[in-house]
Amino acid sequence: MPTISIAPRDVARELARRYSTMTHDELDLLESILVAKKYAKNEKILGEGEVCENIYWIVKGLVRQFYYKNKRELTEYMATENTICMCIESLFREQPTKLQIVALEPTILYCLPKAKLEAVAMKSVNIQILYRKILEESLILSQIRADMLRFESALDRYQKLVKRSPQLVLRAPLVYIASYLQMTPETLSRVRTQTLMEK
Q1: Which of 8, 71, 88, 123 falls between 20 and 30 A from 175, CA-CA?
Q2: How confident is the model over 113-135, as pLDDT tens digits?
Q3: Would you state the torsion angle of the CA atoms of residues 191, 168, 94, 116, taken in this order, to the nearest 10 degrees?
Q4: C-alpha closest to that of 90 among 58, 114, 63, 121
């Protein structure tokens, strides 16, 4: 298991840099709610039937969000370092999720507990902005993926993923990449070969 070498203050600063500028006092507030967690490879972060109570910020590692349909695992989302992950419907409705989140590598993440985040957001406009921008980013990524699956060819889907998330393509098992892009492993193999030939 990796040791947690990044301090909560550094995570608070990175979140502020990415989503909203903050004063020292606001960084103190944000830092005070962060909870560090470590997961071994293949360890479950959130299980089906549990309520998602956190927004997860990945410091190190690779996570996969998936669900079961007709006894098959379908990949909904994957994320590497400096990325947010959550089950947004469960988070806001406070109801059990049908999704699961698992670590595909030894993973370090920081939890932003929703209840505490909302409490500190009441004291800080900049933390409110951070919260809103995190949610906006999550919704935009969901829309991008939905549009990609609806409108784009298998080749375009793969090439967009390579461009947007090169580390993901290098590190995630091909079977999960194929599932995420809603194509068979054989189709993925063909479009990967085609992409390499075009370079």
Answers
A1: 88
A2: 999 999 999 999 999 999 999 99
A3: -160
A4: 114
